[in-house]
Amino acid sequence: MIGAANQTARIGFYLVPQFSMIAFASVIEPLRMANQLTGQTLYEWALVSSQGEAVQCSNGIKIDVDYAAGNREKFDAVFVCSGVNIHLVNDEAGIQWFRQLDKAKTVLGAVCTGTYLLAKAELLNERRCTIHWENLASTREQFPHLVISPELFEIDNDRYTCAGGTAPMDMLLCEIRNKHGADLATRISEQYMCERIRDQNDRQRVPLTQRIGASQPKLSEAVSLMEANIEEPMTLDELSHHVGLSRRQLERLFQRYLHCVPTRYYLELRLERARQLLLQTSMPIVDIALACGFISAPHFSKCYRDTFSIPPRDERRRAAGLLNEMPTHKATRTRRN
To answer: Quick check: is 330 in a domain?
Structure first.
């Protein structure tokens, strides 16, 4: 749990440029509502940035903060809130501060892609963690020694990590439930019209079985095999053998439920993984090609261009060029003394 049982928990939110607004709101709003519903100050919070400057989130809104990294404020927990293009962030001040917080036994957490910065600070070693599903592949490539799960959130002792979107709300509601009881957590959930509080074992993405129905276990098994064998793709004969179907039977299943042939589905899976690595890492294109099962960079480039209508090199350049084109909107807030 964060903070002592009968004391106000003080939480810092470290805002990284291009952080996700919905993920940030989802992590802070349960705390506000906990205070409102109980009439007590169960939680206090402050905003922090690398140099103490206002931070622009991914939708262009700028938010003022209270402190700079390295401040001497006492926090029970600090959550790193980030979003797109996390691999381009060079934040030595933040990383050094996270390490200082770790030495002070402060609980450290990450929202959306904040896990990447904690990993870069070497503060997730021997901890189970998670990150937004779009960044799973690239983060595993960057930090192969870490145990990175596809779960909605992970709480491993003094490390709290979660995916983006509304997943932070589930993680904080579970924290509130554990510390202040199920009744308060349920009341908060009702205020935000959440159908249920998802737990730590919930997956981030809707499983294929929920999209096509549970009556096609062979198809789900084949897709799972594809997803697990990106770097060294299996042949259609190998897939058929492993799931116990003929090639023709497997092709019919794919055509009926996924509206394409197995080889096309497999290729699109590999290209989508390649696109994630292309936009979320600085890996050379030839290494991305090999990591996604293509025999050469030219072959990869052709397949990529045929699918996305742009060569991979141009895709990366275009993404880098868009970083400075986001409009700015100012959101002001009262600074703490």
So the answer is: no
Residue 162 pLDDT: 94
Pairing mode, strands 9-15 and 329-331: unpaired
The CA distance from 280 to 88, in Å, is: 8
Asked if 230 and 293 touch (Cβ cutoff 8 Å), the reply is yes
Q: Which two tokens stand for residue 287?
A: 């290494």
Same structural domain, 216 and 318: yes
Does 253 fall in a domain?
yes
Token pair of 81, please? 């809130």
Instruction: Evaluate whether 67 touches 225 at the Cβ level (below 8 Å).
Output: no
Domain end: 204, 238, 271, which one?
204
Exposed, middle or buried by CB within 10 Å (0-12, 13-18, 19+), for 24?
buried
Integer Cα distance of 198 and 170 in angstroms: 6
For residues 70 and 101, the answer to whether their CB atoms sit within 8 Å is no
Residue 165 φ/ψ, nearest 5 degrees: 60, -130
Residue 222's pLDDT is what? 92
Measured CA to CA in angstroms, residue 102 lies from 2, 75, 109 at distances of: 14, 11, 11
pLDDT at 120: 96
Asked if residue 53 lies in contact with residue 63, where contact means CB atoms within 8 angstroms, the answer is no
Range of the domain at 45: 9-204
pLDDT value of position 5: 76
Name the nearest CA neighbour of 119 among 97, 101, 93, 145. Answer: 145
Instruction: Compute mean pLDDT per 10 residues along the chain, 337 residues long, and list them.
Output: 87 96 96 97 97 95 96 95 90 96 96 96 95 89 91 94 92 93 93 81 62 74 90 94 93 89 93 89 92 94 93 86 51 43
pLDDT at 4: 81
Dihedral sign of CA atoms 246, 252, 257, 262 in order: positive
Model pTM? 0.74
Residues facing residue 15 across a β-bridge:
81
Q: What span, in angstroms and rounded, lies between the C-alpha atoms of 157 and 115?
A: 15
Q: Do 53 and 190 belong together in one domain?
A: yes
* DSSP structure class, residue 161: E
Distance of alpha carbon 120 from alpha carbon 110, whole angstroms: 12
